[in-house]
């Protein structure tokens, strides 16, 4: 909008992060409509176009600013620059820009959008490396990483125009949530003091809850049977792109994102429902393509031709999902079905009939004796250890021998870095009481509910215990997601009016999994009073989490080897 007064075409220049960010919310056609003729990479060599204006959308880092200055310092590549930063630009970088490029800069703004909006209710800081920085005992940049994530979280709040009250999950053996909550709260206060309008913003009807990955080690390791979680666990999906072969043998691909309405509709459904619904949809479309026996006229033909592209798009979408659901079901019937029963019994602590699992080893043993993949066995062993709240050294050695991972025991041992007890006796207990869901209708192999769903529901109903969830900063007294109003607030507003304003933002240090993302939608659906938004440093799959866990001690192993030499 800043440079749309002139009708001339412009160039847009992005860094890798803003390229991803822009791709998540616009298509090239949207940019063309705004008179953007070409999109270029800030870090690649570009041809000068001195007669054109350039829009720079970039992160406020030294590397980005140096590349920008290089474009104008000696021979200006463009007629003028309109600069937009994703976040607050440090003074030293800003002064450098002024020094070398001031006469070319028409606009310089910070637009506070340093996060990835992945889905309607899910965001990510797009920083998978944060896991190692926060949890590796050898980490040199933990504080720096927490600062960066806090800055990103502040831009999310700014985008939503929220100044939330901040609470964190208190852990007896970990300090990360407390440190992070303090950082976020300070940075929020600073951001809203610096507000352009000159007025200091008060707290809004929102609450921000901060947790870290160790609060629920079970959910990211279970074999989930809802469509999205199952697909990302069992099928090789890279950058949200599913590659498959069509019936005629051609290589095809489908992008699984918010633009695919069928994906949005099906992603949280159980695979049994998905497998039932997609073939029906394909039949419906095929039937709608067949014209009734009516007189063929030019007009009828023209209408058919008009409909064809949309019908073709619908069929392509549905065929891709038909194939993806088939692939998931194939994996399910080969291996996953038998695994799921044992996993659910270990996670929930009782079987399908509600009988308590008295001896978890009897549940685990068939998994260890069956020729499942090593990774599936590691997942089952971990669920067994979590169910007991830790095991003995002797028992752990036997389990590691069974799974044949003597050289890769870090897959199991490194969970202690997340504050999860692996070896007993442990100085802390992690067993917390769970909501009773025995009356909920569930599939036998999907009885586990992510812990975060309990947290969301408790927060919305104002039932979070202040001892476990200290306030870093208070929310307004009126904040109560369920719409309950205190006696002092005898306002005559209707419940809907009162409810419409509240937001619950959940941030998990160290990654979230797809079942936790689904929980945000489920709670939102059940409690219309409050919008639930969930985000993290990055999104996890069981494989990526296990690899991250194993990598936590890589540095130490390398050091030990070089020392022996």
Using the 3D structure, state the CATH architecture of the largest domain. Answer: 3-Layer(aba) Sandwich
Low-confidence stretches: 481-500, 556-565
Classify the helix fraction into a percent range. Answer: 40-55%
The strand order across the widest sheet is: 6-7-14-13-9-8-12
Number of helices: 20
CATH superfamily of the largest domain: Sec1/Munc18 (SM) protein, domain 2
Region (Disordered): 477-496
Pfam family, one: Sec1
InterPro entries: Sec-1-like_dom1, Sec-1-like_dom3a, Sec1-like, Sec1-like_dom2, Sec1-like_sf
Protein name: Syntaxin binding protein 3
Description:
Belongs to the STXBP/unc-18/SEC1 family. The protein is an alpha/beta fold and about 575 residues long. Helices cover about 45% and strands about 15% of the residues. It has helices at about 15-25, 30-35, 60-70, 90-100, 130-135, 140-160, 175-195, 225-235, 260-265, 270-290, 300-350, 360-370, 375-390, 395-405, 410-415, 450-460, 495-500, 515-525, 540-550, 555-565; strands at about 10-15, 35-40, 50-60, 80-85, 105-110, 115-120, 120-125, 165-170, 205-210, 240-245, 250-255, 470-475, 500-510, 530-535. The longest helix has about 50 residues, at about 300-350. It starts with 9 loop residues before the first strand and ends with a helix.
